[in-house]
Amino acid sequence: MFTELVHQKNCKKYTMITDAYTGEIACGSCGSVFSERTMDSGAETLGHSSKEYQSNSRVGQKISLKMIDMGLSTIIESKDKDSAGKSLSPENRRMFYRLRMWDRNSRSVNSVKSFQKAFILLDGISSKLALPNYVVEHTAYLFRKIAAKKVLTGRSTSGMLCATTYIACRMTNTPRTLQDVAEAGNIKKKNLQRTYRFLAKELEINPESYNPIEFVTRIAMAVNISEKTERLAFKILNIADKKNISASKNPMAMAAAAINLAVAINHVKVSQVKISEASGISSVTIRDRTKEIKEKVGGEINGQNM
Predict the structure, then answer these.
(1) Distance between CA 201 and CA 87 in Å, rounded?
(2) How far apart are CA 4 and CA 275, in angstroms?
(3) Does the residue 273 lie in any domain?
(4) Domain count, the chain
(5) In whole angstroms, how far apart are CA 41 and each of 20, 60, 112, 261?
(6) What is the tens place of the pLDDT at every residue in 116-149?
(7) Which residues pair with 16 in a beta bridge?
(8) What is the Cα–Cα distance from 211 to 251, expressed in whole angstroms?
(9) CA nearest 167: which of 190, 198, 191?
(10) Which domain holds residue 273?
(11) What sign for the dihedral angle of Cα 148, 149, 150, 152?
(12) Does any domain span residue 159?
């Protein structure tokens, strides 16, 4: 609380007025001024560009979970001198020696080492998969949560981080497949699946499956089909979703099957092998999903009997 105003004897009102320019707070009746002043939360000077505005900020960088110390690093110089360049007293020298030792020991803890390795790997995976910043932050949050449960001991840090990344992608609805994450993290898909199931059980989460529509554009660009065929694939998947055909199916397989069916309807010369290579789904699976869609959807697409 601010100190009380020293009012004049004949002043019975208590109306405060703040001067934003000088930072003074005064009584609106008698003009008595507080001894304290308000804090200016604005920038030091005006910036004409975003770079100048950021450089004029009073605060440092924002807290980030993907950094080992969350961006709140401590730097203790080895010189035993104060800000004026004078030598410290013997008592202060001993105190700062202990502080340096504690700071150095805190950086060598096993959990910090695992964070350092994991977050360096996270930067590489995020750049390969083009993950947005909020997905990276959510991955770091989940990894710290896993570390707090003490389940990292005896397990591969890269495998745990890749599984955490896939969980974060599922929870934030960022379409990345298991194969994409496995290739980015340079691990086997089977190991990633096993670790993912373990973490999902450990964290007690059950992320929703991807919508197959999210993978249509990716495959369409890879096989270079027209927008007309792509829109038809969207229509096929919408009808399939209404008939509950996509339930418990691989979203990428359903997207590949919809494109395969749309290509056949529009008589576009794109081989099934090319679609298989673009989607990472075997030709047998694509044929099975295509056959299932034909049987259950019937002639609802363009009024044709497929």
Answers:
(1) 57
(2) 77
(3) yes
(4) 3
(5) 11, 13, 34, 60
(6) 788 888 889 999 998 999 999 999 999 988 888 8
(7) 27
(8) 6
(9) 198
(10) 212-297
(11) negative
(12) yes
Instruction: Determine what percent of the chain falls in helix, strand and coil, rounding each to the nearest 5.
Output: 55, 5, 45
Instruction: Give pLDDT tens digits for 207-246.
Output: 888 888 888 888 888 888 888 888 988 888 888 888 888 7
Residue 211, token pair as written in the block: 């919508």
Strand 16-18 relative to strand 25-27, pairing: antiparallel
- The token duo for 141 is 């949050």
Query: Which of the 8 DSSP states describes residue 202?
Result: H
For the record, the structure tokens of 247 come out as 């339930």
In angstroms, the first-to-last Cα distance of the chain is: 78
CB 255 within 8 A of CB 237: yes
Q: Which two tokens stand for residue 130?
A: 């083009």
- E-strand ranges in 202-277 read none
Is the residue at 56 inside a domain?
yes
Q: Which of 60, 78, 99 is the last residue of a domain?
A: 60
Question: Do 292 and 221 fall within a single domain?
Answer: yes
Question: Are the CB atoms for 216 and 233 separated by under 8 Å?
Answer: yes
Q: How far is CA 122 from the centre of its chain?
A: 11
> What CATH number does residue 282 fall under?
1.10.472.10
**Predicted confidence (pLDDT) at residue 166 exceeds the cutoff of 70:** yes
CA 181 to mean position of chain CA atoms: 14
- The whole-angstrom separation of Cα 143 and Cα 161 is 7
Exposed/middle/buried for 273, CB within 10 Å: 0-12, 13-18, 19+? Answer: exposed
| Residue 159: exposure state from Cβ atoms within 10 A (0-12, 13-18, ≥19) | buried
